[in-house]
C-alpha cells in the first residue's frame, strides 16, 4: 500500500532547544530572536522590545559587544522601541549603534550607513526635524560617494532630508534637495513612478509656501495631467492635485481657469465622495472665493447655497461650520441684491448663534456686526446705530474698548451718527476712534487709515457713505 503522508514534526520549543544544546547555543539565540520578532509583528512591539533587551544582554555576555549577532540585536531592538511609540529613544539607540558600527566595520560600511539612516528616520517620525535634517544632511554626501547618485538608499535619504527641511520651514534648502532628488527619481524609477509623483506634489507645495506661485502652478499643471492619465481624473489623489492646480491658478490671477477648475473638481468630488464630504465642501468654498474675487456675487451666493445645504445634511443645522457658511451666504445674498432675504437670514442666524454658542461667542458677535453693518447700508441707519451701540457695549465688556473688533464697531457707529445728521457728535466720536486706533494698531494700519479718511470726510461736511 502507498505510504500516507505523515504530519510534520512540530518545531522544537525554545525550552526544548535549551535543554538539548544549552541556553547559550546559537540555535537557542536564533529561536529567541525569531520569537521576539513574531511577537512584535503580531501587534506587541513593546513586548518585542523587552525581549530584545534580554537578548542583547545575553548576546553581549556570550559573544561580546562587537559580535555581529549583538549588533543585529541592537538594531532590531531599536526598531521595536520605535514601533512601540518611543521614536526619540529609538533614534538615540540607532545613533549609539552607528558609533559602534563605525568603529567595528568602518564609517562607510553599508551596514553602518543603514544604521545612521535608521537614526534619521526615527528622528523624523518623532517630529525631531532639526535632528533628522542634521543626520541626513551629513549622511547624503557619504551615500553619494559610496553608492552614487542613483542608488535607492540615496533617493530615500534625499527624500527624508527634503521632508525634514520642509517641516522646519527651511524651504529654500528643501527646494535645493528636491531639485537634486527629482531628476534622479526620474532616471531610476521612471516618469510614472508613484514615488516620483508624490515627490513632485510635495515639491510643488514647497514652491508655493516659498512664494514661488508661478513655479508651483507650472508643476501642478504637469502633475495634474500625469495623474489624470495614470490614475484617472476622478481618483481621490488626482482630484487633490486638480484642486491644488485650481488654487494656484487663483493665486496667480487666472480667475477664469481657477473657476473652471474648482467647478470641475467640486462636481467630480460630489459624484465620487458625496456632497457632504470635507474635500467636496473645500472645493466648493474655494469656488465661492474664486467667484467672489471676480465680483460675481450671484454665483458666489449660489455656491454657498450648495455648501449650506450639504453641511446641513452632513453635519446638522447647529454645526459651527454650517452656521459659519450661513453667515457667508447671507452676506453674499445681500451683495447680489437680495437685501430682504439676506437681512432676514442674518437675523435668524444671530438667534441660532446665541442658542448654540452663547451671546458672548466671537461668532455671535461677528454676525451681529454683519447684521448691523448691512442694515446701515440698506437704508435702516437708525436701527443699525442702535444695534452697534449694544454691540459696542458687549465688545467693550468682553475685549476692551481698543480691541480691533470693538474699534471697527465704534467706527461704524460714528459714521452712522454722521449719516443721521449729527456731524458734530460724529466728528468727536471718530476722533476718539482714530486716537485709539493709532495707539492700538499704529498710524499706518489700513484700518487706521480708513478712519482717518472718514474723519476728513466728516470735517469737510461731505455726505456720508
UniProtKB/TrEMBL annotation:
Region (Disordered): 1-26, 440-465
Compositionally biased intervals (Basic and acidic residues): 16-26
Taxonomy, superkingdom: Bacteria
Entry-linked Pfam families: TPR_10 (PF13374), TPR_12 (PF13424)
Protein name: Tetratricopeptide repeat
Amino acid at each position: 500500500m502507498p505510504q500516507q503522508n505523515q504530519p510534520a514534526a512540530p518545531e522544537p520549543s525554545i525550552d526544548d532547544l535549551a535543554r538539548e544544546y544549552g541556553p547559550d547555543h546559537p540555535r537557542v539565540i536564533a529561536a529567541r530572536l525569531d520569537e521576539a520578532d513574531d511577537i512584535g509583528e503580531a501587534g506587541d512591539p513593546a513586548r518585542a522590545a523587552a525581549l530584545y533587551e534580554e537578548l542583547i544582554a545575553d548576546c553581549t555576555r556570550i559573544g561580546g559587544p562587537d559580535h555581529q549577532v549583538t549588533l543585529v540585536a541592537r538594531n532590531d531592538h531599536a526598531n521595536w522601541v520605535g514601533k512601540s511609540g518611543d521614536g526619540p529613544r529609538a533614534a538615540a539607540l540607532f545613533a549609539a549603534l552607528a558609533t559602534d558600527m563605525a568603529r567595528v566595520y568602518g564609517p562607510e560600511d553599508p551596514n553602518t550607513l543603514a544604521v545612521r539612516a535608521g537614526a534619521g528616520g526615527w528622528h523624523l517620525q518623532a517630529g525631531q526635524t532639526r535632528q533628522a535634517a542634521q543626520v541626513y544632511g551629513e549622511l547624503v554626501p557619504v551615500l553619494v560617494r559610496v553608492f552614487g547618485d542613483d542608488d535607492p538608499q540615496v533617493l530615500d535619504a534625499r527624500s527624508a532630508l527634503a521632508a525634514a527641511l520642509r517641516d522646519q520651514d527651511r524651504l529654500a534648502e528643501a527646494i535645493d534637495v528636491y531639485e537634486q532628488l527629482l531628476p534622479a527619481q526620474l532616471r531610476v524609477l521612471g516618469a510614472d513612478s508613484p514615488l516620483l509623483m508624490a515627490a513632485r506634489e510635495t515639491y510643488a507645495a514647497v514652491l508655493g509656501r516659498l512664494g514661488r506661485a508661478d513655479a508651483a502652478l507650472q508643476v501642478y499643471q504637469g502633475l495634474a495631467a500625469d495623474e489624470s492619465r495614470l490614475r484617472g481624473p476622478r481618483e481621490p489623489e488626482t482630484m487633490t492635485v486638480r484642486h491644488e492646480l485650481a488654487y494656484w491658478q487663483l493665486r496667480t490671477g487666472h480667475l477664469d481657469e481657477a473657476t473652471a477648475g474648482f467647478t470641475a473638481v467640486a462636481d467630480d468630488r460630489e459624484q465620487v465622495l458625496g456632497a457632504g464630504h470635507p474635500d467636496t465642501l473645500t472645493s466648493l468654498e474655494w469656488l465661492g472665493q474664486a467667484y467672489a474675487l471676480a465680483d460675481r456675487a450671484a454665483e458666489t451666493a449660489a455656491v454657498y447655497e450648495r455648501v449650506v445645504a450639504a453641511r446641513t445634511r452632513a453635519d446638522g443645522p447647529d454645526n459651527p461650520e454650517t452656521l459659519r457658511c450661513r453667515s457667508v451666504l447671507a452676506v453674499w445674498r445681500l451683495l447680489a441684491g437680495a437685501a430682504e432675504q439676506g437681512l432676514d437670514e442674518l437675523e435668524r442666524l444671530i438667534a441660532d448663534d446665541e442658542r448654540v454658542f452663547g451671546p458672548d461667542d466671537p461668532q455671535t458677535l461677528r454676525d451681529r456686526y454683519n447684521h448691523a453693518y448691512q442694515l446701515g447700508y440698506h437704508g435702516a441707519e437708525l436701527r443699525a446705530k442702535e444695534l452697534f451701540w449694544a454691540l459696542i457695549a458687549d465688545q467693550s465688556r468682553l475685549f476692551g474698548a481698543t480691541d480691533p473688533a470693538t474699534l471697527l464697531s465704534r467706527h461704524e457707529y460714528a459714521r452712522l451718527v454722521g449719516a443721521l445728521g449729527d456731524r458734530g457728535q460724529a466728528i468727536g466720536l471718530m476722533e476718539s476712534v482714530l486716537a485709539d486706533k493709532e495707539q492700538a494698531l499704529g498710524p499706518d494700519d489700513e484700518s487706521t487709515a480708513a478712519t482717518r479718511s472718514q474723519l476728513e470726510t466728516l470735517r469737510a461736511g461731505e455726505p456720508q457713505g
